[in-house]
Write a structure and sequence with these properties.
Largest sheet: 7 strands, antiparallel
Helix content: 25-40%
Oligomer: single chain
Shape: elongated
Distance between the termini: 75 Å
Structural class: alpha+beta
Length: about 850
């Protein structure tokens, strides 16, 4: 037989199967398994097998073996001889006939009825089991359809059958799923007459094997656009050439799946921007498969392509309006855009809902800005505002567009009928002056965090503010959302770093406390201050044009450490004691729960063998202490900045605290890797969306006294909400404790769910996230710690602030923005 024909290989396999079946020997161990699963006497099964010509095992070598407890394992043992009974199902259950014996020869004589009472008893018992499996399959399908799943898939069905406590073995239900949901119809036995042909959709094991090569090829997730977009000539705006649309981060970076020759699914990050770029991550896919109970198929992508010319509604601005805008920017036409791509990018942020709409091409379901403008200085901003007041236009400031709160989305026309213009201030990115003696700098608000940090580092300074979005978010955005960075322990939050602001409002420039040239007052007592009004204003009061910020000399030393603790409760007690170190706290310390800890390990490129050794070492240490288990262990990553003597003292104190709580130092390499991974891991969410997973993070401030019960209640609520909707798989829910305070800490939650075959998945996800937020507030957490409110969390505002306070804010806004020119409707103004 030659190897040139695929069919020949199938035939060869069938011949081998036939020869193997002829050699099958059955023992009492196998018979007892059959008796157990079918509810028959062992002698009945032995007599039936003897009647169909089965050969039995000589002697008693394996008859003394104990049957496994698992029902599926017992079935597996029985199925080693079940092919003897396959012909008796040819007419009544042809699919089960083929399932029992996929290689059944088509020339075999199919009996009309079982011969003898013993064979009849076995066939009847098998029929009852098959029909029970079919019934529970149908019941589960109907249950899922009642939950909104029009075409439930195999894994989803099996998941809910397994939770039903049915006595029917899952392997039979799985077989039914293959028959009902399979792509091909079963082969009709040769002697079955045409009037008995099954018309139901079924599954053929032989046809399935023959059609494996028909799988469709993988399509690229991104493609190079041949269209030119606006602003090509503006060097300062080259972010649009490098930033992805419809996914987080740079276009040259992002995770992809590769399948090696052994069939192992490896994840790799494109590009060379990050420490893990180009490295194979062999454990990421398997981690999520295990955590969510969902098998990930690299060939099955949810959104093969991201459209670079999205379908959106037409702009409400006409040619005369555009000419007026062009006059403001010195007739530099490239600084005005009404293109679909620019309007789409500026009318969205980076929430899962934003990304989902972009990836599914449904941006036409929301309102987008009618135009985008890029002013270059305060004069142009003032002129734009004055024009908008005259023309009754609405303005929405835009920084880096990294918000996850829908704060840059446009209000619907039912609330805001006027044309809306997005004001992108990224061309206002200059450092105006630095006063080294006073330790302050005056900076335009459009500068990105990465650019600001780099420019200051060249001059020997650090800005101290390092949010996870630092590569793309802007100084103005930090102020408008009241942001916080990972190093707040040492440098403070944005309200501690910013000393003064300049704001362009509806009636002109707003400033306060003029102090002279290139200087700022450290503190004043002159009534309500402008900075407090602008912190968290989210674009509702005006456009922040510049700010004076504190800067610090670059630290003498930067070091990292990591620590493993027995469980999350021990971790909480550890970071609580670290918070009491006051000014001696390290620059950053983050506590990862067990789920995040294991995810972090999966995100390493350590070869599997070496990782197993690492796990064994942790298990060994834990066994010596009888405290640490890989199933409960948590990890803290620590970043130190300061003088060598300061860091030495910090390490000594932290070592004493760690010993008190059963912690084990795990080295600086893990600590540094944890912080290096911060910026790369942000790409993981939108990569997961490609393979039918929605994910998001949301944060809160929690008092120490409420932290443990809040985390427990929030995780439980997410699981309950997920289960009540009968969603596929399990949700992945994790958390980490980040910024520490005397009164409590910031807690980040991460929620991920599979959405394959889920109707309106983004809306379902949003409902569960809102339920989690509801649980957080009910258990003493804040509405937000640093992401802001925007429109996403605005419905909760009436529950956390008094009506009098809301009325006060509205009255204040109306007093200086009479025409509501800044009608973005975020937070209290929604």
């Amino acid at each position: 037989m030659t190897s040139s024909s695929e069919t020949n290989f199938v035939q060869l396999g069938e011949i081998l199967q036939k020869r193997q079946k002829e050699k099958v020997l059955v023992s009492s161990f196998h018979i007892n398994a059959g008796a157990k699963v079918l509810g028959l006497h062992a002698e009945t099964i032995r007599a039936a097998l003897l009647s169909v010509g089965c050969n039995f095992w000589p002697g008693q070598e394996i008859d003394s073996l104990t049957l496994p407890q698992s029902l599926s394992e017992q079935w597996t043992i029985m199925l080693q001889y079940s092919h003897f009974f396959a012909p008796f199902f040819a007419k009544s259950h042809p699919h089960w006939c083929e399932w029992l014996d996929p290689g059944l020869h088509e020339a075999i004589i199919y009996p009309e009825d079982p011969i003898g009472k013993d064979i009849s008893a076995v066939v009847s018992a098998l029929s009852a089991q098959f029909e029970a499996a079919e019934q529970i399959f149908e019941d589960t399908v109907q249950l899922l359809k009642s939950k909104g799943f029009s075409s439930p898939q195999c894994g989803h069905i099996i998941q809910y059958v397994s939770e039903s406590n049915s006595s029917t073995p899952l392997l039979l239900v799985n077989a039914v799923a293959c028959m009902k949901l399979g792509e091909f119809k079963s082969i009709e036995p040769a002697c079955v007459t045409s009037h008995t042909t099954s018309t139901s959709r079924g599954f053929s094991f032989r046809k399935r094997f023959r059609n494996i090569s028909s799988a469709s090829p993988v399509q690229a997730l991104f493609h190079q656009s041949t269209k030119k977009v606006a602003m090509e000539k503006i060097d300062s705006a080259n972010f649009r050439d490098s930033e992805s649309f419809g996914a987080w981060g740079y276009a040259d970076s992002g995770f992809v799946v590769e399948v090696n020759q052994e069939g192992m699914k490896h994840v790799k990050m494109k590009g060379n921007r990050y420490s893990i770029s180009g490295k194979s991550l062999p454990n990421v896919v398997s981690f999520f498969e295990k955590a969510t109970k969902i098998k990930i198929d690299p060939l099955k992508v949810a959104f093969p392509l991201i459209p670079d010319d999205p379908l959106i509604h037409r702009s409400d601005l006409d040619a005369f309006d555009i000419e007026k805008l062009e006059e403001i920017v010195n007739n530099e036409k490239q600084r005005i855009s009404t293109s679909a791509l620019d309007r789409a990018r500026h009318g969205t942020g980076h929430s899962q809902a934003d990304m989902f709409m972009i990836r599914t091409g449904t941006l036409n379901t929301i309102r987008l800005p009618d135009a985008v403008i890029w002013p270059a200085d305060e004069t142009e901003v003032e002129a734009l505002i004055a024009l908008s007041v005259r023309e009754s236009w609405c303005l929405i400031p835009f920084g880096g567009g990294t918000n996850v709160s829908h704060s840059t989305r446009c209000p619907p026309k039912s609330l805001e009928p006027r044309p809306i213009i997005s004001v992108d201030i990224k061309l206002m990115d200059r450092i105006l002056w630095i006063n080294e003696e006073d330790g302050v700098a005056h900076v335009q608000a459009g500068i990105t965090g990465k650019c600001l940090a780099s420019e200051m580092e060249l001059r020997g300074y650090t800005i101290g503010h390092e949010p996870d979005s630092i590569e793309f978010s802007t100084l103005g955005g930090w102020i408008a959302t009241k942001a916080s960075g990972m190093k707040r322990n040492k440098y403070g939050n944005i309200e501690d770093i910013v000393k003064d602001v300049r704001v362009a409002g509806p009636k002109g420039m707003i400033w306060q406390n003029k102090s002279g040239k290139k200087s700022v007052h450290g503190r004043v007592s002159t009534g309500i201050d402008l900075l407090s009004l602008m912190l968290g204003s989210e674009g509702g009061f005006g456009i922040i044009t510049s700010a004076t910020i504190k800067v610090w000399p670059m630290p003498e030393c930067k070091e990292y450490e990591s620590l493993i603790l027995p469980c999350f409760e021990d971790g909480i007690r550890f970071v609580r004691d670290v918070a009491k170190m006051n000014n001696l706290k390290p620059a950053s310390i983050r506590l990862l729960d067990n789920e995040q800890f294991r995810l972090g390990k999966a995100m390493t490129s350590v070869p599997r063998g070496l990782q197993l050794i690492q796990n064994a070492m942790i298990a060994f240490i834990g066994s010596m202490q009888s405290t640490i288990s890989m199933h409960s262990a948590v990890c803290t990553t620590i970043s130190f900045e300061g003088s060598s003597s300061e860091i030495k003292l910090q390490k000594q104190i932290i070592g004493d605290i760690a010993a008190k709580h059963g912690g084990i130092f795990s080295g600086s390499r893990i600590g540094k890797a944890g912080y290096d991974l911060t910026f790369a891991i942000a790409y993981l969410r939108d990569f997961a969306m490609t393979y039918h997973f929605l994910a998001e993070s949301f944060e809160t401030f929690v008092p120490w006294s409420r932290l443990e019960p809040l985390v427990k209640a929030t995780k439980e609520r997410i699981h309950q909400e997920h289960k009540s909707r009968s969603l596929p798989g399990l949700p992945f829910v994790s958390c980490r404790v980040t910024q520490l305070y005397d009164e409590g800490a910031c807690v980040y939650f991460y929620f991920c769910m599979n959405f394959e075959n889920v109707s309106k998945p983004s809306l379902v996800f949003a409902e569960i996230e809102a339920a989690a937020r509801e649980e957080i507030i009910a258990n003493g957490g804040s509405l937000s710690h640093h992401h802001g409110v925007g429109k996403l969390r605005a419905p909760f505002m009436d529950g956390v602030n008094s009506k009098c306070f809301k009325d006060l804010l509205l009255s204040f806004k109306r007093s200086f923005d009479e025409k509501n020119t800044f009608g973005v409707r975020n937070g209290a103004f929604a």
